[in-house]
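At this stage, I wrote out one protein's amino acid sequence and its backbone structure tokens, and that material follows here:
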Amino acid sequence: MRDGAIVYDDITSSADLPEGWTDEQDGGTYRVRRRGDKALFGYNVGPQSWKRYLFPPSSLLWRGHRDDGGLTVDTDPPGDGEPAGRFAFIGVRSCELHAIAVQDRVFLGGAHPDPVYAARRDGVFIVAVNCGQAGGTCFCVSMDTGPRATAGFDLALTELLGDGGHRFLVETGSERGERVMGHVAHWPATTADLDQSRRASEYAAATMGRWLDTDGIKDLLYGNFDHPRWQDAASRCLSCGNCTMACPTCFCFRVEDVSDLAGVQVERHRSWDSCFTIDHSYLHGGAVRVSGASRYRQWMTHKLATWIDQFGTSGCVGCGRCITWCPVGIDITEEAAAIRAAPILPLHQEEDDGHA
């Protein structure tokens, strides 16, 4: 717990976990409150994602200095923020496992893997937690990304409360996970434990706060570039980029070179960027997307449609962060439903009907 939110940070023991806390989320709304038990993972997802550790908000790519008429470049400068050791992520939800897999495809799946991401991703030990409740903005069931972890973890926990005491049902997902469990006191799960774990996941799935109809959504968005809903969303959107900062899959960045006042040393930095900024589409003296409507359309269409063509999967995992952390509560599921309810006919259909 920090600053009124449940955040990801270094922990030294289970005492650092948010025991007995949960969160309440809705459009533009987040608050924490006490639970009536001592659950350690009785919350959903907060303002941060694991992206901040694998694809950090700011990275020093290289540093160089001028000498004897040339430039010497150090591509592995000290103090560049790279981790001293390997990460162990504890409390990763199923939607976030899918988000990590999406970023793996973006940064590692091409012909030129990103070295910063690769160095941080290497050897990450993941302890997943199956959700026993859904948040007010969750819609992972719609995206087939949760609430139960099925792959991408070393260990997966289901927190069991009530009859039988406070305990965890553990599933191993890798040889490393099995080796770790060999050093932890445990006993075989009973049928009652398995049933309780299954019911917890079923309850979370049945209480999703949101739903997104993904049937044909790529073609729906491609066929509605000029839908009036984009203007409606833009009239409310602040173009602040909060949705892209909180999103666990957004990967846009900018690169900047800075030099010292003497012109002797230069550094290249990479920082998170957002398609909601005008500079993001700046080309040859002007921005391509100057209106709020075009920027919101770019983000949502990329997330739910273009991403499928690029990477073979949706860019949305249904975590709901973009809804919760939007200052004005714009809801991606609501916007998609509005377009689906009153779509503009695709051009080829208009021509078939004899219209210009």
